[in-house]
From TrEMBL:
This is Uncharacterized protein. It comes from the Bacteria. It comes from Gracilibacillus halophilus YIM-C55.5.
Length: 177
């Protein structure tokens, strides 16, 4: 069966239009990195959110869509909308510790690695390529706390901000259950 030329032309124009729309709405990587960095720095410098989750050894703030999936001695596995976040905490490192930052700096594979200091606290954002071209590996840290996830590039700034809000809010409890 042979299609009329007008049908072939219409399909070709529609395909070109869809491709043009997809290309024009795609954010450049540099813009995503800049937005993520700004979101994290702003969250780092604001007053810590009041914790709304009490766990065995710590309390922390979780945004509405986040929930605790699993908890071990130094790790908390969080989930939000099907995405996994790994929170690692080391109570022997204070909030000015640069240990986690130095570890990612040694990898030398980052697209973005920025640090922040405020009132004796040290924080950072680390972004590197993930296994797929549409994703980043994202790590946010404050002192001895780091949170890592694999995020869609389009969600990087929002995820980075949420992760910093969580890391900023963590308080160690005096008791162990």
């Amino acid at each position: 069966m042979k299609l009329p030329k007008s049908a072939v032309l219409t399909v070709t124009v529609l395909c070109a239009f869809v491709i043009a729309i997809a290309i024009s709405t795609r954010q450049p990587v540099e813009e995503v990195l800049q937005q993520s960095n700004q979101a994290v720095e702003q969250a780092f410098n604001q007053e810590a959110k009041t914790p709304n989750q009490d766990l065995n050894q710590l309390s922390l703030f979780l945004p509405n869509t986040f929930e605790v999936f699993e908890q071990e001695s130094n790790n908390v596995i969080l989930e939000s909308n099907g995405q996994t976040y790994i929170l690692f905490h080391n109570s022997l490192e204070n909030e000015s510790s640069q240990l986690n930052y130095e570890a990612v700096n040694e990898k030398n594979d980052h697209l973005l690695l920025e640090s922040f200091e405020n009132q004796g606290r040290f924080g950072y954002i680390y972004i590197s390529e993930a296994d797929t071209k549409s994703e980043f590996q994202l790590q946010i840290g404050v002192g001895g706390i780091k949170i890592t996830t694999i995020t869609e590039k389009s969600d990087a700034a929002t995820d980075a901000k949420d992760m910093m809000l969580i890391a900023n809010s963590l308080i160690y409890n005096d008791h162990e259950e």
